[in-house]
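Tutorial, part two.
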Amino acid sequence: MSGGLSGAPADTPGGGGGPPGDPRTARTRARLRQALLDTCAERPLEEVGVAELVRRAGMGRATFYLHYTDLRALAVDACAEVVRDAVDALHAWRGVPDPRVPPPALGSFFTGLTPHAALYRSLLRPGGGGPLGELLHRELRERSRAERALAGAPAPELIASAVAATFTGVLADWLHGLIEDTPDGIAVRIWRLLVALHRMPTE
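Running the prediction step on this input gives:
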């Protein structure tokens, strides 16, 4: 099924700090991302300050601002992995997909959101808005459109938009408790929705 995310670059620009391919840049950003994830596992993003974060990462404020404009830019970069995880989970099948049973990776994806759910909720508002929601929708729509067009399936733009909006919106509402279900349960339901979208008549 076409309908995943192409993934966001690991080195999303935030303020400079060297070429994206520089190993030192990658290591510094990885330390900052991990420090933020560890801190936000303890309390909300709104209560985190740059001074505390850089102490935890073992670096100075100047280094932080070389790489990110603010904490929200860092948070979006830290959460970009969830975008890559989503695309992998939605494409973790071979042959003809079973419309009733999602790939096991999809259930694992939803289960894996739990440790950092509070941070994801702060960046992905109900309905799919917010910086993480915008990134998720954009990447998902492009991957779905490209793969559907490559396969010669009809209405790639229409179906891609529907897939992106459905996945992003349902994910956001589930994270915010507006849809009550277990990780495995929501994986089954969203998989069936996406399969139905890909198979629906477009004329």
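Residues 2-13 have pLDDT under 50 and may be disordered. In part three we will examine how such features are distributed along the chain.
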